[in-house]
Amino acid sequence: MASSLEQSTVARPVSGEPTMNAADAALPRHPRLRASRWPARLDLLQSLSGLLLALFLIAHMFFVSSILISPQAFHTIARFFEGAAFLAEPRPWIVSCVVGVVMALFMLHAWLALRKFPASFRQYRIFIEHKEQLRHSETGLWWIQLWTGFALFFLASVHLFGMLTQPELIGPYESADRIWTGNMWPIYLLLLFAVEIHGGIGLYRLALKWGWLQGADPLAGRRRLRIARTCFSLFFLGLGLVTLLAYVQLGIAHADRAGERYVPHKASSRLAEHGRPGGLEFALSRRPGE
Ligand code: HEM
What we know:
The chain is mainly alpha-helical and about 290 residues long. It has helices at about 5, 20-25, 40-65, 70-80, 95-115, 120-135, 135-165, 170-180, 185-210, 220-255, 265-275, 280-285. It is elongated, with a radius of gyration of 27 Å.
């Protein structure tokens, strides 16, 4: 029996039409059957959204860890993101807008990742069997990324919703009270591990995929990338744990006054002495209405 390809106009060109070569003839003619570029585009979008989130998180960890310098340093940075340097008074809704953008990026990245989750128990079993047969480290990493990504759906959503709806409650006492008296520290601890492991593996896989930092010898390049991945995750886990501990300590010390807002010492003492002071330092650290 003749195959559908043999019966098609591709196999039997009409006389007068240019003859196709074998490769062209093998391509399906129906538009819906032609190879789509969309999987590649979506893959690129997933890489790009992941890279932007990773860069955001690197900056975010440094901002949040300013509490290690002093409560005043963190307060100043928090007010800076509310526009204190260039507006008449800080506007917490600016932070909500930034959170909205990060949330949109996060949702896009998660939605794109969903395409690759096993969609049924059968697919799940097949993947596990392959993983056990192959014992391939990169496949194992992909599996870790899938589960840490799954955990982030829940953990990061809780955190982002809090930042979106209560941007004015970002400050040394406010954050420490949320973490300790508000019992958020277990969520932050899990979130920290999930995001640093997920981000480290994600950046490593991005570098492998797009050939960054590979050098002439691919094996040596991969070894270098593995070391960079481990250093990245360890550094940010270490920084995050020390930072979380600082918030917990401050939260315990402040527990009997939980809910009281942080008032910069310099600003409050100067206010008491001379009324409202001027200057960039005060402008950066004051709150709406202060
Ligand atoms: C614009 C969006 C974001 C803002 C404004 C923000 C702000 C903050 C702030 C102020 C803290 C200190 C604790 C607190 O006040 O509750 C914090 C901690 C933390 N955030 Fe975010 N965050 C954002 C997005 C994210 C995202 C997308 C992730 C991860 C997916 C994340 C992961 C964490 C972690 C793990 C901690 C604990 C830090 C530590 O233990 O050192 N944040 N964030």
